[in-house]
Every structure is written in C-alpha cells, then in structure tokens.
Amino acid sequence: MIRLITDFDGPIIDVSERYYRVYQYCLQKIQRSDQQVKQLPKEEFWNLKRSCVPEKQIGIISGLDEVQAQEFSKMRRQTVHSEPYFQYDTLAPGAVDALLKIQQAGVDLVVMTMRRVRELDYAFQKFDLNRFFPENRCYCLSNHYVKTRDIDDKPLLMARAIEELPTVADTWMVGDTEADITAAKRHNIKVIAVECGIRDRAQLELYNPDIIAKDLMSSVDLVLGG
C-alpha cells in the first residue's frame, strides 16, 4: 500500500487571490489620505511572495514609509487567515482530477495542513472535497491552537500522523513550502515539492526536496509511476 500525504493550500487550493485581496486592503488602510502609493499588479505581488520577499519590504516597494510598512506587515498577518477572505480561494488547476486519479489507484490519501478545523471544513464544503479525505485522514490545527511557525508546527502534525496511521510500505509527502519539506525529511518520508504554490523553485531548492514537480497531478504521476 502506498500513502500520499498532501498539503492543502498550494497543491489543492490556489490562495493567490486571497493573499492579493488582503494586500490591497492593507495597503489602502495604511496609506495616508494625501499619500500616493503604488499598488502592485497581482502577478508582481505574487512573484514577490513566492520568492520570500518580507511583507515589510513589499509595503516599502508599494510606496509606504518604514513605520507604515511595519504596520502593513502586522495587519497583513492578522487579516490573511480571517474568515471574510477565504471566499477568494480557488481550486488549483487539475487538483480534483489528481485526487480522483490517486483515489482510484487505491492509494491511502491523507491531507496535512496548517489550516484550522473550521478553515478546512469551509473549503471542504465549498469545493466538495470531503469525498477524498475521511475524518481520520485529516491532519490540521484545532480552532484554538496557538501557532508558532509552520516550520515548527508542521513536523508536530507529521509526528502525530505517523503515530496514528496504520503502517504502509511506501509514503510520500507533497507540499509547496519549506514546512512540508522539513516535516517529511524529519520523519524520513520522501517529499515532492510543487511549484504551483507560495514558494518558487529557487526557494524550494534551498530545502532539498527529493523531487520538484509542477503540480499535484505531476506528483501523482510520479508516485504511481515510481
């Protein structure tokens, strides 16, 4: 039996529009009424995010001063995972087809995400994803979990999954961030990093995943082929 553990945001859900809307909102809230700012086009903004340019720097590039950029960064963190903005998430192209393909192949499919229970439930219902992930194959944060850093929190989720899930012959992890790669490597699980999420190839390469693939479907083909 093969097991595929997949991250949610990135491989399955495209969060770029949510992040961009929050960027627009925070920029508008922070700028002074008499101040000219430069709202970045979505593609430029997303490229900065994917190459790990700090929020504060994105604020400065957009025309905020040093103090404003600090406030912008703080507001962005407080807003990006708030309920009104989850409506802007969309399915990543080809993600549902990839999930169908791996499910039909009889692979044990697990989702592992830094979303809270209510945030994952919202997306499951909106996009009809419950059919792929029974409750005992969902690893996420409780609604009241106090987050530290994803790169610290995600390996803890992985440890819990390894302890609870039945043993299988072969396990793969698919994710789009350093947290996914770190969580897998710490527990000796093969990891495929996908380029369709919030990190670009150069950032992913820094953490030495086993494979870098285009998206979830490419990852599924690799797992089934390998």
Automatic annotation (TrEMBL):
A Gene Ontology biological process term: DNA repair
UniProt keywords, alphabetically: Hydrolase
GO molecular function: phosphoglycolate phosphatase activity
An annotated GO cellular component: cytosol
Domain of life of the source: Bacteria
Keyword Hydrolase: yes
The name this protein goes by in its record: HAD family hydrolase
Source organism of this protein record: Aetokthonos hydrillicola Thurmond2011
Taxonomic lineage: Bacteria, Bacillati, Cyanobacteriota, Cyanophyceae, Nostocales
